[in-house]
Design brief:
The complex is a heterotrimer of chains A (about 120), B (about 260) and C (about 625). Chain A has three helices and no strands. By secondary structure, chain A is mainly α. The termini of chain A are far apart. Chain B has about 260 residues and is of the alpha+beta class. Chain B has two domains: about 170 residues, Four Helix Bundle (Hemerythrin (Met), subunit A) (Up-down Bundle); about 60 residues, no CATH class. Chain B contains six helices and five strands; from the N terminus they run αααβββββααα. Chain B has a five-stranded antiparallel sheet with strand order 4-3-2-1-5. Classes of the chains: A mainly alpha (about 120), B alpha+beta (about 260), C mainly alpha (about 625). Chains A and C meet through α3 of A and α6, α9, α10 and α12 of C.
């Protein structure tokens, strides 16, 4: 984001060279896409709130709500952040990150719940 | 020699420098919030059964904020699209919306914080609890007034989802109060997590707003000289903003709904 | 001195400094050139000098602690009055009254020695200083990908260092809870030192984060045409993996630091359990927190941090061994895959620091297994480096001496770690001097020797002059001798059961002291074990004195060292030597193109015994596989 100041003077009206996206950007199609994404997000929020009022065990409710939240996150990341059509390098970086997050969550939780026998107080 | 690939993509990676940079930065952000979320999981799993609070949040405000942030994510993307099709007027409109939405979000957040800090749990000398919003706490008076209820069972204070709470104005003499504490981060682990997680998230919103405000204001000079690079900056700041939205997508259910 | 400061053209006219963008010449004023520089080389030098100062500071703290251990309750010679003066605060008991270090002061020295050495000394020197100066040159880049982020990274580091240093002078003194800052101890000690520590750490973590993003982006994006992944020098690979570790392992500690900050400031109970008693009284906290949570988040960083410390040193050693044995590195690909494996595995071994926290047997076994597995790639690296020497025409010079000493010293450090990785033997050795000896062997004669090697090796590139060889070897031999004299006896002390972090050096467990007092202690520390304190103290003092030749040599050689005859005084193949000395702003006169791997030494049929990476093929002049650039 911050490089030494360059003096590249490009014509502001030139179409530019969109290297990072092969397809030229179509404004209206993006408006449509955004409307759909927003509708999906609203639905997901509504669904989550509805699910939280169901008469179920908390563990089941949490599972349902987090599932909806994950779908919601998938839509936002996939379409708004263009993660569905990203470069291999980005996937590689995120792949490492996700594996470490899983390690952090999984192993800490495992370590905290694996006690020597007969030492758990509650 | 100039630094290459500041604007155009490097052929073998297909990315320009700042985009690699922002994704790396976001990975570290994933780990940062990952650390905090793992704290959430561990403290919740380790809590004494029945003491994890439910329904302590103002669901209306939370839902409004969720929608506000989702909408701002949309306007951020549209601002980038506007740059991409070289329509600067639309860019200015959409990012003005983003900034307004961000300010709205922060204002609502402040109101939520105020509500929590004004809510008191009062332990009476006779062993009962009074719980509610502070209405009057004047040091000169020998009583306080809260808008709340009495309960004998401490467990009643935790789960507000499964009970109908009737609140009325209570006048409590100071002489009967053993101890009282507001619902700040010091109150219990849930509120500690709530304030820390949402506080850090709000800090991200604030930083994101500063960056977007810079691009919208003084930073727009670059549009005239190098629109492609300006568009890249909008994209990169947009990625950050979407990430902040993603964090909220998980914060909302884990703090407000479950 | 003149050459050193003339790396960049002097500013000609300050009034032009605002409108010279894009005219191709680099012409900043003094402040922009040396203080607020965005040039990776200047930032590297800034990092290097600051970090060396902090290393020296850390060494001084260690000497004071060693005095206290060997002579508990006796005033510190020479520096005693100075300490008394520094720590005097009106209305508070002096922690150095009469020049005697109090246990509280000892604790804060211990905590800050660790913090300073790790976070302010070695990481900035190994990763930020060498990485900044050398990596862009080695991959043929004109600068880092984000020069201003780079500057911000140094500034955050400097600020963090400042906060840490200032914390010594506040009433109550610096943090006392060890470099690990375990809660609830860290939250219970009634000083503001811990608050300074947390804020300092948050700044340092931010700095590392910005640096790591920059390094990875630079290595991914700015490699010169033809510099494919498998043509990168091993040092670049080591820095690449190190940057990933910093990027992904540090944020959980930042999260933990934020939570500890909340515990301190907002009185939350993230790490404070229900029923916590401080000073014999129930603490007024909400409770419900988990002290183990802090340990998990801390060691999630803490273990990768060990590899952050060691990998850059391995990279430096690899470069120097290849260069001075005039022979390609044996098993370059094994090295690369090993370093990647280390990076990956280092994230799932952390709880071997926590065997004594009451973890279950299943999870202990898991972490024991991953810990044993991670030693395999480390051994592969060490073995490759050893085999690389076989049959080489070895040149002995100061960088090579340090690089050669790195191998056995790191070997001792690594192998003595195995008993700590097994959870059964760790029960006996945990928290003893054995642990101290183990990780100091890895970091002090290991990493620091690697870093010294790097300083001697790249000094001619930075200044255009060599450091003095004679004083270099004096520095080396004395350091090698005294390092071992300091740390070797600690293995014995640890196995005899001497605990670390005791201000009186274990006098309360000493068999002699206890029998004199009439107490009957079974398994007390014997006289011979206690007596080792004194030789360690004097070896440590000598180790400190042995650094004086280095300091003088370093500054003297900047202006008076022997001038190098060419840009490539070590006849090296890698790109950093194929530039003018010192490299100008922008590093290369034109973009270098890479045609071959990094270690083409003694290629049969070639006229010299080294073939630089940017030397075109003579027999096959076909264009190399390069990404087309805009330039």
């Amino acid at each position: 984001m911050s490089e030494t100041t360059t003096a590249k003077t490009a014509d502001p009206h030139s179409p530019g060279t969109p290297q990072s996206h092969e397809h030229p950007v179509d404004f209206n199609s993006y408006v449509r896409r955004c409307a759909i994404v927003f509708a999906v997000v609203l639905c997901a929020v509504g669904l989550m709130i509805w699910a939280s009022f169901l008469h179920l065990e908390w563990s089941a409710k949490i599972a349902i709500i987090l599932l909806i939240a994950s779908c919601n996150a998938f839509v936002v990341a996939g379409f708004l952040m263009h993660l569905l059509s990203e470069r291999k390098m980005v996937y590689t970086i995120l792949g490492f990150t996700v594996s470490f997050v899983i390690g952090l969550f999984g192993l800490t939780l495992w370590a905290m719940t694996d006690f020597p026998l007969h030492t758990v107080t509650h | 020699m100039e630094i290459p690939y500041t604007v155009e993509a490097r052929p073998d990676t297909g990315l320009y420098n700042a985009k690699v940079g922002i994704w790396l930065f976001l990975s570290s952000e994933v780990m940062l919030f990952g650390g905090l979320f793992s704290a959430y999981i561990l403290l919740r799993v380790g809590a004494v059964p029945g003491t994890w609070p439910h329904g302590w949040q103002n669901l209306t405000l939370g839902t409004i904020n969720t929608v506000v942030l989702a909408l701002s994510a949309i306007t951020t993307l549209m601002a980038w699209v506007a740059c991409k099709v070289r329509e600067f007027g639309k860019f200015k409109f959409f990012h003005a919306c983003t900034l307004l939405l961000a300010v709205t979000f922060l204002c609502i957040k402040c109101e939520e914080y105020r509500e929590h800090l004004n809510h008191y749990e009062i332990y009476m000398k006779d062993g009962t609890y009074a719980d509610g919003d502070m209405v009057q706490n004047d040091a000169a008076q020998d009583y306080i007034v809260i808008d709340g209820r009495y309960t004998k069972n401490e467990m009643d204070l935790y789960d507000l989802r499964s009970q109908k709470v009737v609140e009325k104005e209570l006048k409590i003499p100071r002489s009967q109060i053993q101890d009282m504490q507001s619902y700040g981060p010091w109150h219990n682990d849930y509120l500690a997590l709530y304030f820390t997680l949402t506080g850090l998230h709000a800090l991200h919103i604030l930083c994101g707003s500063v960056v977007i405000g810079y691009l919208w204001g003084p930073g727009r000079k670059l549009w005239k000289t190098d629109p492609e690079r300006f568009t890249n900056r909008v994209e990169v700041s947009g990625l950050f903003w979407h990430f902040v939205d993603l964090v909220w997508i998980f914060l909302f259910p884990v703090l407000y709904l479950t | 001195m003149a050459d050193f400061f003339n790396q960049f053209p002097p500013h000609r006219d300050e009034s032009h400094s605002h409108d010279d963008h894009g005219h191709g010449h680099y012409d900043p004023g003094f402040w922009a050139k040396y203080i607020f520089s965005t040039d990776h080389k200047v930032i590297g030098i800034q990092y290097g000098i600051t970090a060396l100062c902090f290393l020296f500071f850390g060494l001084m703290l260690m000497l004071l602690m060693r005095w206290q251990i060997a002579h508990p309750g006796m005033p510190v010679p020479i520096f005693g009055h100075l300490l008394e003066l520094i720590f005097q605060h009106p209305g508070m008991p002096n922690p150095a009254a009469g020049g005697v270090i109090s246990p509280e002061l000892y604790n804060s020295f211990g905590a800050m020695h660790g913090t300073i050495m790790v976070f302010l000394g070695i990481v900035p020197l190994a990763f930020a200083a060498f990485g900044n100066y050398v990596v862009p040159l080695m991959i043929g880049a004109p600068d880092m990908a984000f020069p201003r982020v780079n500057m911000a990274s140094y500034q955050a580091y400097f600020l963090g260092g400042l906060v840490m240093t200032v914390s010594f002078f506040i009433p109550g003194g610096a943090a006392q809870a060890g470099w690990t800052s375990y809660s609830p101890l860290a939250t219970s000690i009634p000083t503001h030192g811990q608050l300074f520590w947390i804020i300092g750490m948050i700044l340092l973590i931010t700095s590392s984060l910005l640096g790591a993003v920059n390094f990875i982006a630079t290595i991914i994006q700015l490699r010169a045409p033809g510099m494919t992944w498998m043509r990168m020098p091993f040092f670049v690979w080591a820095q690449f993996v190190t940057a990933f570790l910093l990027l992904l392992a540090f944020p959980p500690l930042e999260a933990a630091a934020i939570m500890q900050l909340m515990d301190n400031v907002a009185h939350t109970s993230f790490f404070l359990p229900t029923g916590l008693a401080v000073g014999g009284k129930i603490a007024h906290v909400a409770g419900g927190g988990s002290p183990l949570l802090w340990q998990h988040l801390f060691w999630f960083l803490g273990h990768p941090e060990v590899y952050v410390l060691i990998l850059p040193a391995m990279g430096i050693v690899c470069e120097i061994l290849a260069n001075n044995s005039r022979k390609p590195i044996w098993g370059y690909k094994s090295l690369v895959y090993s370093v990647l494996a280390i990076g990956f595995l280092s994230m799932i071994v952390w709880a071997h620091h926590m065997y004594m926290t009451g973890m279950g047997t299943v999870i202990s076994t898991f972490f024991q297994a991953t810990t044993m597995i991670i030693s395999i790639p480390s051994v592969i690296i060490l073995t490759c480096l050893f085999i690389s020497l076989w049959g080489g025409s070895i040149r002995i010079n100061t960088p090579m001496l340090f690089a050669l000493a790195f191998l056995p010293m790191f070997g001792i450090g690594g192998l003595t770690g195995l008993p700590l990785g097994f959870n059964v033997s760790d029960v006996h050795l945990h928290d003893t001097y054995y642990v101290i000896a183990h990780f100091h062997y890895v970091v002090a004669p290991g990493t620091i020797f690697g870093l010294f090697a790097g300083v001697y090796y790249w000094f001619p590139k930075i200044t255009g002059r060599r450091m003095n060889e004679f004083w270099g070897s004096v520095h080396f031999w004395c350091s090698l001798l005294f390092m071992n004299l300091v740390f070797m006896p600690m293995f014995a002390q640890g196995m005899a059961g001497m605990l670390r972090r005791m201000a009186n050096g274990g006098a309360n467990y000493s068999a002699a002291v206890n029998s004199h007092a009439g107490a009957d202690v079974i398994g007390g520390l014997s006289d011979s074990i206690m007596a080792l304190h004194t030789p360690i103290l004097w070896a440590a003092v000598c180790l400190g004195i042995a650094q004086i030749p280095f300091i003088i040599n370093f500054f003297w050689s900047i202006s008076h060292g022997e001038k190098v005859g060419s840009d490539n005084p070590w006849q090296s193949t890698t790109l950093e030597w194929q530039t003018p000395t010192p490299p100008p702003h922008g590093n290369f006169e034109h973009f270098p193109v890479v045609y071959r791997g990094p270690y083409e030494y003694s290629v049969p049929g070639h006229m010299s015994d080294f073939t630089p990476q940017n030397e075109p093929e003579i027999s096959t002049p076909a264009a190399p596989k390069i990404p087309t650039t805009a330039h």
